[in-house]
Fold this sequence. Notes:
This protein is α+β, with helices and mostly antiparallel strands. It has one domain: Glutaredoxin (3-Layer(aba) Sandwich), CATH 3.40.30.10. The protein contains ten helices and four strands. A four-stranded mixed sheet has the order 2-1-3-4. Helix 1 packs across helix 4, helix 3 runs antiparallel to helix 4 and helix 4 packs across helix 5. The longest helix has 17 residues. It is globular.
Amino acid sequence: MHEVDFYFDVMCPWAYQTSKWIREVRAVRPITVNWRFFSLEEVNREETKKHPWERPWSYGWSMLQVAALLRRGEDGNDLVDRFYEVAGRVFHEEGVKVHTPEGLASVLEDIGLDPALVSEAVADATTSAEVLADHEKLVARGGYGVPTLVIDGSCVVFGPVITPAPAGEAAGRLWDAVLAWTEFPNLYELRRPKTAQDWRHIEACFAPYLNARDWRSVQNPVP
């Protein structure tokens, strides 16, 4: 049985596709998935801007605060799984603005939870502390974005970056390939260049997200 810490930010369309894949893997390979938090707003923050936890509402950070509140308790990891599955689908596939208080409250209602948990989570400074603890733990291990997997507590892998997410046994074979990667601790990068056709494919897949987002993408150079 392999244990996977899956670092995500609800805002990221690539992480969402990878989350769909890892759920498929869970059905065909012996793995467990622990949901962890990473903030794209913080890692890509411009020097003159406030930290996301210093604002009354931050698109991605506030969603992670809600997830942090849900993660507390015996079934917390499963609740985060359900929350991210629904929030990701509604945002990245249906183009609904879940990054607003109202949108996030609707997600909680969809999974049978009290929508008042949104305001409770955002008002609770300890949820920010939990998000930041996850974020800084990955940064300390060289993490710079999502999706990032930590496999069996030791191997840190960015990706796989793929759309659409493979399903069934195809998902399992991709997992096998990721595991093969972990055999080589000094294998740092393997990339496929994106052609114009690839970019058209990506744009079509991410159209709901691109239409729903209310921010300008900022991405610092990869170390």
